[in-house]
Design a protein that fits this description.
By secondary structure, this protein is mainly α. Helix content is about 55%, strand content about 5%.
Length: about 300
């Protein structure tokens, strides 16, 4: 099998079977085509490439000066490609099986305190329609731990306020139910009273979308980023934050409060528990207090 056929078959597989986003598919294709360029230079077909040749390719990638995270992503894409070749019985042995990835430290995300979130929400001018909308957006991102793409696509028919849940369509069109708190419900209801008023002319394809711009159309990802950045500055928050920071804060506060990691994984829509484990980065003070409160050998327990 030649490289063109192998790559085309794999891309069709991940697009259909894995339901990956267009950006993810493009990234995988780019990474495998990098390997293809190397393989063609040494005259080897995809089913005949060796572990040593892949390692040599990765050494060349390292020499390009790409950071370790990018290198790890490239190796991940190549591993997925050869796993597919194994599934299709094109090869008998996976040449990537024994290759070690680059050593990378986990970059801990920025997290806002509850006071900082309150300060952020206090910057919105509630006398303006977009002020209440933006406050509801921030509270929903934090209360439900949503991705930006999930927030802008949230529909009226996804709200089950009587049961304190919202339905979320996440990555790969996977559906999950996420609890929503009273405060977020109240902020959304306040915004909805304006949204349903005659002054907002809602576009034809946006009738079921919750958060709309002043023209009655769905908000963009870029607009959410702009809102958060602008009001973080007004709130004098020095951290480098984005809408995703509110998702990180949601998860971190749950874990610090003692929530089960599997439950947090489910609410975040993480496919792997390893992705959720980043939120166990509890500070030393919290860990110290936890031991003092709960460990049977601690002074407080024996006092």
């Amino acid at each position: 099998m030649g490289w063109f056929a192998a790559i085309d078959d794999y891309i069709n597989f991940i697009r259909v079977e894995k339901s990956l986003s267009g950006n993810s598919v493009s990234a995988y294709k780019h990474d495998i085509e990098m390997l293809k360029g190397y393989a063609e230079s040494v005259g080897v077909e995809p089913e005949n490439i060796t572990m040593n040749q892949i390692q040599e390719f990765l050494n060349q990638v390292d020499e390009l000066g790409l950071n370790k995270r990018t290198q790890a992503r490239i190796l991940s894409g190549i591993r997925g490609f050869y796993k597919y070749m194994m599934i299709e019985e094109i090869i008998d042995n996976d040449p990537t099986e024994l290759i070690e990835g680059p050593k990378i430290g986990r970059k801990l995300p920025e997290v806002l305190t509850i006071n900082e979130i309150d300060s952020l929400e206090a910057t919105f001018d509630l006398s303006k329609p977009e002020g209440q909308r933006n406050k509801a957006i921030v509270e929903t991102l934090y209360s439900c731990g949503l991705r930006v793409s999930e927030l802008i696509n949230l529909r009226i028919t996804d709200l089950f306020f009587d049961q304190n849940f919202v339905r979320v369509i996440g990555k790969g069109n996977k559906e999950r139910l996420v609890p929503i708190g009273t405060k977020a419900i109240n902020e959304i209801n306040l915004y909805m009273s304006y949204r349903n008023s005659v002054s907002l002319q809602i576009k034809k394809d946006s009738e079921n979308i919750i958060f709309l711009n002043r023209r009655g159309a769905k908000l963009t990802r870029e607009m959410i980023f702009t809102i958060i950045k602008k009001h973080a500055k007004l709130a004098e928050i020095k951290k480098n934050i984005s809408p995703h920071t509110l998702r990180h804060s949601f998860a971190t506060h749950l874990v610090e409060g003692g929530a089960d990691l599997r439950a947090v994984q489910e609410m975040l829509g993480h496919e792997s528990i390893q992705t959720t484990e980043i939120y166990t980065h509890l500070d030393k003070e919290f860990l110290r207090d936890t031991i003092l409160r709960f460990h049977p050998r601690s002074d407080k327990q024996n006092g």
